[in-house]
Amino acid sequence: MPERIIPIFPDSSSRTLPAPLAPGRIPCGALGLPLTDTRQRPLTDLRISVTDRCNFRCRYCMPREVFDGRYRYLPHADLLSFEEITRLARLFTQLGVRKIRLTGGEPLLRKDIETLIAQLAALRTPAGVPLDLTLTTNGALLAHKAQALREAGLRRITVSLDALEDAVFRRINDADFSVAGVLKGIDAAQAAGLSPVKINMVVQRGVNDHQILPLARRFRGSGRILRFIEYMDVGATNGWRMDQVVPSREVLACLQEEFALVPLARAMPGETAERWGYARADGHRHDPALGEVGFISSVTQAFCGACNRVRLSTDGRLYLCLFADTGYDLRAPLRAGADDETLAGAIAAIWQGRADRYSELRASLSAAPRIEMSYIGG
Ligand code: SAM
Ligand code: SF4
Ligand code: SF4
After folding, report:
1. 231 alpha carbon to ligand 1 midpoint, in Å?
2. Domain locations in the chain?
3. Which ligand is nearest the CA of 53, by number?
4. Is 169 in the pocket of ligand 2 (CB under 6 A)?
5. What is the mean pLDDT of residues 238-264?
6. Pocket test for ligand 2, best of 8, 56, 101, 159 (most atoms within 8 A of CB)
7. Confidence grade of residue 83 (pLDDT, cut at 50, 70, 90)
């Protein structure tokens, strides 16, 4: 049978790199001013996809009928090496990045990921401050890896868990992985000192919306922060429909039927999650011991205006938006021997030209080719 190649990269060629800014013209150089895009958004947040592979087959992300035995993943030589990733991360740090999230695919599948974490944990901002270094995982391998991740310098972690009922979760991950296995990973992360542990639940109508309250009950007062994510139209393979999205307002209303919740300030500018705290018995004041929940409303309340995030794909392309259809190939100049100044100047020029705001325009856009989240990094 011929090998099936699914054209998930709409552009097999990438965008041409703009002329690098001269070092003296990079705004966050000596003056310490932030590097901003065309909408005055600073570059502060870098997401790095370390593998396009995964041991789950969540239907909303890597449906089994597409990501099957014949699917062609990136060959190992195409992946950025740890040294290449670290070099780019250092340049991004010089340009203003303060937070790095490792993702994928399933980042814990990348061999020796602890080594990369140790390299990234050693990076410092120009002011000498360590980065906010974190990772998003499906939790399957976390029980074994949590301690090593912490020892390597990881500070906090986000674990995805879409249901508490085992049969529902197994249907969603489509890999027969149990809830108990993920809960074990979450416990191990907390025991290892990764803090806070955040739990991501992608809510889909008719699939797991009946799991909102069970998950909330489970994590209320546990020190872990449950976050509800609106199901997004990322990629081209999940068959997304608007009627499958459960708006955050609806999730909040569902929680409020059982719990008193009070709004909390956002953790920091550009933070995607809207925070609500569980209230004390008076129903008005936040009880920190009961914790909080978060809502990431990418579909119903676009937060493009504060989006300071850039994504580096597994093979070294830079994407300015989760919904971008083309990326900038940084691997080619990296492997052709470009010096730091040239690379940093190119990245700065790319960011300065950025105008992306897909979620704000979603309703008015016709279907365009999309990059899969497992490749670009969730
Ligand atoms: N494999 C890891 C995991 O599942 O946590 C990391 C990669 S995954 C692409 C990152 C996050 O994106 C997960 O929390 C996942 O649930 C979320 N995600 C994937 N597809 C999504 C979609 N279509 N809409 C909203 N969130 C999505
Ligand atoms: Fe894998 Fe994460 Fe995508 Fe699920 S959401 S298929 S665990 S990459
Ligand atoms: Fe950022 Fe693009 Fe998402 Fe808007 S749609 S918040 S620009 S990643």
Report:
1. 9
2. 23-376
3. 2
4. no
5. 94
6. 56
7. very high
Q: Using a 6 Å cutoff on CB, does residue 60 contact ligand 2?
A: no
Q: Note the pLDDT tens digit of each residue in 275-291.
A: 999 999 998 999 999 99
To which residue do tokens 């052709």 refer? 336
- Are the beta carbons of 79 and 116 closer than 8 angstroms? no
CA of 308 from ligand 1 middle (Å) equals 19
Looking at the domain 23-376, which fold is it?
TIM Barrel (3.20.20)
Ranges of beta strands (E only) in 241-354 are 261-264, 274-278, 292-296, 309-312, 317-319, 328-329
Length of the chain: 378
Taking the C-alpha atoms of residue 186 and residue 160, their distance in angstroms, rounded to an integer, is 10
DSSP for 293-312, please give it: EEEE-TTTS--GGG--EEEE
Pocket flag, ligand 2, residue 106 (CB < 6 Å):
yes
Structure letter (DSSP) for residue 108: G
